[in-house]
Amino acid sequence: MAVLITRPDERGKQLVEMLHKAGIPAIHLPLFSIESGSELNDLPNKLNQLKNGDYVFAVSKNAVDYAAQTLRNAGFHWRNDLHYFTVGMRTAEYFSSQTEQVVYYPCVSENSEGLLDLPAMQTLNDKQILILRGNGGRELFSEQAEKRGATIDTAECYRRVPIAYNNVEQTSICKRAGVQTVVATSMEILLYLMDFVPENEHNWLKSCRLITVSRRIARFAVKSGWTNVVVSPRADNQSLLQTLLQSH
Description:
With 248 residues, this protein is an alpha/beta fold. It has two domains: 2-32 and 162-247, Rossmann fold; 39-159, 3-Layer(aba) Sandwich (Rossmann fold). 42% of the residues lie in helices and 21% in strands. It contains eleven helices and eleven strands. It has helices at 9-21, 43-48, 61-74, 89-99, 112-117, 140-147, 167-176, 187-196, 202-207, 215-223, 237-247, and strands at 2-5, 26-28, 32-36, 55-58, 83-85, 103-104, 128-134, 151-162, 179-183, 209-212, 229-231. The strands form two sheets. A six-stranded mixed beta sheet has the order 3-8-7-4-5-6. α1 (9-21) links the parallel β1 and β2. The longest helix is centred in the N-terminal third of the chain and has 14 residues, at 61-74. The chain is elongated, with a radius of gyration of 19 Å. The mean pLDDT is 94. It holds the Pfam family HEM4. Residues 14-242 form the Tetrapyrrole biosynthesis uroporphyrinogen III synthase domain.
């Protein structure tokens, strides 16, 4: 019973290797590559424009990676008079290692809703929030923060670029390999996967167990026809591995 890993780049490869070591066959089929974003050159200036006490929110490890590398290349140091946030513990740990600053995240619900529940997010009058993000993505946090009085600025730090495959051939390979479990770690990946797999193969796709990382994505998957959906408590590879081992 093979597992299809759609997580892009190195983290997807690492998860496949972890599964192989655990004796579980897995295929890596990243649907996107991650490339540098269009607004990285503006990042030092955007950070300089923030006031003492303003917020910086990194949506993912990819955003941290590209932002940190850009600032290193520019000789720019992360400011110690700002407050830094992510939605997940692993990303917060990584962001903290890059900024050498405390990074806050929601301990209970590692998502935008959890972030909005933090005490620091309740009254945002006169706060400016710089969001380090990719192209596209969810708008809930920025919309709600604006309603609470914040001024929002964004920096596109990375881009998801679809990878060209022969979708009929790749779907056939997955079926012949015995894929019965699919890992989709974002709504963007799940939507693209549904477009990628030919419609006449959707019965097979939706008969697979789906492992995802948020109840929001799980609810959407169930509405779209999946009957076996498991939510990993966190989005990092170790948590995904434990979820896969428990449900395998």
